[in-house]
Amino acid sequence: MTDSSAPAGFVRQGWRWSGRLLTGVISLALTLLGLLAFTFTLSHLAPIDPTLQVAGDHASEATYAQVRRDLGLDQSVPVQFVRYLENLAHGDMGISRITAQPVASDLMRTFPATVELATCAILLGGTFGILLAFLAVWKPGSWLDNVARLVSLLGYSVPIFWLSLLGLLLFYAVLHWAGGPGRLDDLYMYTMTPRTGFVLIDTWLSGDRDMFYNAISHLWLPVTVLAMLSMAGITRLLRASMLGEMNKEYVILARSKGAGRMRVLLCHVFPNVLGTLITVLTLSYASLLEGAVLTETVFAWPGVGRYLTTALFAADTPAILGATLLIGTCFVLLNALADALTYLLDPRTR
Fold first, then answer.
1. What pLDDT was estimated at residue 1?
2. Can you give the residue ranges of every domain in the chain?
3. Which of 124, 106, 136 is nearest to 285 (CA)?
4. Residue 57: count of CB within 10 angstroms of its CB
5. What is the pLDDT of residues 285-305, one digit of tens each?
6. What sequence ranges are listed for the domain ABC transmembrane type-1 (predicted)?
7. What is the mean pLDDT of the chain?
8. In the Cβ-directed half-sphere of 267, how many Cα atoms lie within 13 Å?
9. Distances in whole angstroms, Cα of residue 303 to Cα of each of 13, 25, 53, 100, 109
10. Radius of gyration over alpha carbons of the chain, in Å?
11. What's domain 103-345's architecture?
């Protein structure tokens, strides 16, 4: 009986995982479709005429009409959207009107810069956010707890673009502790051989340590600004989750047996808030990919955020849709990853 029930259990578990996977794929497709439709409609409501951008202000009516037909703007918006989806299904995101390059190529060139910025920021913000949350719960009501709450308040209330401008003014213009806007000084920008798209890796592989240190000097300030944003959310939510666990019976039992507060936090409380921590970290990482728009613009960081900002001001519809699709896909996939990791690591969710 045991031998026959084991395969049946595996089959049921397989069907359960297949159902969750199918539901996730359908949800991903519908979410991205709705996001594209919304963005496509908004881009056509912009008060900028893409035809004039291509044809020029002094083009004749015949030239204007021809360019409009070439761009497909003579069709209705639903027809244009369906045509865009057909091209997208074949891997064609269109041609950017700004760079005159395929949007897919532009995104492949700019995406590594955004990933590098967001990854360094989540590593820094996550480390200090977890540390602050632990110290706050270890000594509730102390100055450590007050510092953690102050960091959370500042991270949520201070606009990121203002913090970026203040950081540039103080650490670049006044103190000269940080490199200027961009990923490298002009001296190195045109001598570095791009291999991976990640400036830290490329400069390290080049063997030029001065170039590598120059990349760090340009990277640390925007990373710190973004890390402040993620650290605030991680500290606030993890602190609240651990404080909620501290009043439960298993914690009181462990304390009654003589376990110290830090031991209780590490060995008993932390495993029970691991699912919350994973969710917060993955969603914070996704929000950093989205929130890098303002930071990249201020620091002239050549990532997807700055690319999207430039496309928005120029009403470059293919570039806007491509960047939106990429960022939206990352957000949905990271959200799904958070759910999957929580399901695997937290038995209470099964």
1. 46
2. 10-90, 103-345
3. 124
4. 6
5. 988 887 778 889 999 999 999
6. 111-338
7. 85
8. 10
9. 41, 28, 24, 17, 8
10. 25
11. Orthogonal Bundle (1.10)
